[in-house]
Write a structure and sequence with these properties.
The protein has 431 residues and is mainly alpha-helical. It has 22 helices and five strands. It folds into three domains: 223 residues, no CATH class; 67 residues, Serine Threonine Protein Phosphatase 5, Tetratricopeptide repeat (Alpha Horseshoe); 86 residues, Serine Threonine Protein Phosphatase 5, Tetratricopeptide repeat. Bound molecules: zinc ion (ZN).
Length: 431
């Protein structure tokens, strides 16, 4: 769509016929004249508003290894100094998600999943990933993406969770919040991908890294996109499609940049060593989630227990175990597991929401309400609002229940009819 509309609009830039919403400006990175529907204040605002919730959609911050996040931040900040808009409020976070992915929000909020970190060979490859994302923010690619454009026109940022009463599928556990699709899977055009590679390599070279790492990184992606791991990589590849022509373009770019530069292999491997030690446990946990999706709950518990034997301090493993236990109606075991999950990580909505739902089912309405509210503060899921509505109904507060159901209807596309019916039924019974 961009390609089709950009040419005539570029011509329009020289006329005074522009609609008020949009204006012409020079792209800060490329220096090209282009149509822009956002200004920098808007970029900063959108980035800040959605950074927290978008992290929740990607497994939440990787709290078990704060040093790893500090390390990634130090590399990101070093690179951001060389961006054209180095004054942007850049931030970098590692997310607890096995899907190999990285994303940027407008205004320079950037995330990398631990599932991508384990595929990288050295610090220069990490720099290549981060510099690429920095360009997407710096050159306003993310801010001007079709996904964000449609958000503006729709005028809402709805969030919902796909946690059905039949339990969470692997997908739901991974993605959770539906608007992952808008930012996490922002699709960049081929031209913007090449631009992000080109300027990203300039930034990494200026920061002292060997720009050839962007070539080896791209080669890895091409190989993986062809291999058996293609499925696992589909999110990353959908937003940043790899290709042999990108490998060639990056090779050419590297020729034009100063040779040499740091690869930082030993340093990188030292920094991710704890993550690599835990990787087999995450693989087991991923298998456990898959088993839950297939309703093999006892198998899921056994897999989660194996993961816990490797790493006893990862909340995710207890969350998976607790959920499987609750499906087998082992409520008190499930509650213990979820207590442990929340105690280990209270910065991720899923275990808190899960415990809130279990407490609701056990009719512990007061503590359920606390959990559901706490989960909402992290991620505005429809299911939490529905459960809060049901609790209010149990307490015969039909005005409050009605409010929650109305909010729930706004929070997602699911369950619209049922929620409207509930609101109507309450309206007549409230009189
Ligand atoms: Zn990209």
């Amino acid at each position: 769509m961009h390609k089709r509309i950009l040419l005539p609009l570029a011509l329009l830039c020289f006329t005074a016929l522009l609609p008020t919403l949009q204006s012409c400006s020079v792209n800060p990175v490329t220096g090209k004249q282009e149509l822009s529907w956002v200004d920098e204040n808007w970029e900063r605002k959108i980035g800040e508003q959605h950074y927290g919730q978008q992290q929740q959609a990607g497994g939440g911050p990787y709290v078990i290894d704060p040093d790893l996040t500090l390390y990634v931040q130090s590399i990101g900040k070093k690179l951001a100094q060389y961006s054209k808009r180095s004054h942007l409020p850049y931030d970098f976070v590692v997310l607890n998600d096995s899907t190999p992915n990285a994303w940027a929000l407008p205004g320079g909020k950037i995330a990398i999943h631990r599932g991508l970190l384990v595929e990288l060979k050295d610090e220069a490859e990490l720099a290549a990933v981060l510099a690429h994302e920095i360009v997407h923010a710096d050159a306003r690619h993310t801010a001007q993406s079709q996904e964000v454009g449609s958000l503006i026109s729709v005028g809402q940022m709805a969030a919902s969770v796909l946690l059905s009463s039949s339990g969470y599928s692997n997908q739901a556990l991974q993605q959770g919040i539906a608007y992952t699709g808008l930012y996490g899977q922002t699709r960049y055009s081929r031209g913007r991908e090449l631009e992000a590679d080109l300027y990203g390599m300039q930034y990494m070279s200026a920061a002292g890294y060997d720009p050839k790492a962007a070539v080896s990184l791209q080669e890895t992606f091409v190989r993986l996109s062809k291999g058996r791991s293609a499925d696992a990589f589909s999110t990353l590849f959908a937003s940043h499609p790899p290709s042999q022509s990108r490998v060639a373009a990056n090779e050419q770019t590297a020729w034009g940049l100063p040779s040499g530069g740091d690869r930082g292999k030993a340093r990188f491997q030292q920094e991710i060593s704890k993550l690599m030690r835990r990787k087999p446990a995450y693989d087991l946990s991923d298998k456990a989630k898959k088993a839950i999706g297939e309703k093999k709950y006892a198998e899921a518990i056994a897999l989660a227990d194996k993961a816990i034997r490797i790493e006893a301090n990862e909340g995710e493993f207890y969350e998976v175990k607790g959920f499987a236990q609750s499906k087998l109606n082992r409520s008190s075991d499930a509650l213990k597991s979820l207590d442990k999950a929340v105690a280990l990580n209270n910065q991720y909505y899923a275990p808190i929401l899960r415990r809130g739902i279990l407490r609701y089912e056990l009719k512990s309405y007061q503590s359920a309400e606390q959990d559901l509210q706490a989960s909402l503060a992290l991620a505005p899921t429809q299911i939490a609002l529905i459960k809060l509505g049901e609790i209010a109904e149990e307490q015969n507060d039909c005005a409050k229940a009605s409010q929650y159901y109305q909010k729930a209807a706004q929070a997602g596309r699911e369950n619209q009819q049922q929620l409207q019916q509930k609101v109507l039924a309450l309206r007549s019974s409230c009189r």
